[in-house]
Amino acid sequence: MPFTCGDVFKIILAIILPPLGVFLERGCGVDLLINILLTCLGYIPGVSSTGTSFSNIELHAERDKEVAAAWSSSEDEQGV
């Protein structure tokens, strides 16, 4: 998957201020809270947590596609 200008911008912001990168990528949730706590413990844990959040996006997207496909096939079987 190629990088877009927005992705490069998010990565730069994530390096400067890790919680901001997580917020832009994942929104306000548990990932953001964990990243804020890790960033309070130190810059390096915050940046590594941000990298993990960014790398898991593709995994979550694939899982969501699989779940949607399974859901639609079960609806077809039930005649809904």
Automatic annotation (TrEMBL):
InterPro entries the record matches: PMP3
Keywords on record: Membrane, Transmembrane, Transmembrane helix
Signal peptide positions (record): none
Cellular compartment(s): Membrane
Entry keyword annotation includes Transmembrane helix: yes
UniProt xrefs under Pfam families: Pmp3
Family membership noted in the UniProt record: Belongs to the UPF0057 (PMP3) family.
Annotated protein name in UniProt: Plasma membrane proteolipid Pmp3
Species of origin: Vanrija albida
Upper lineage: Eukaryota, Fungi, Dikarya, Basidiomycota, Agaricomycotina
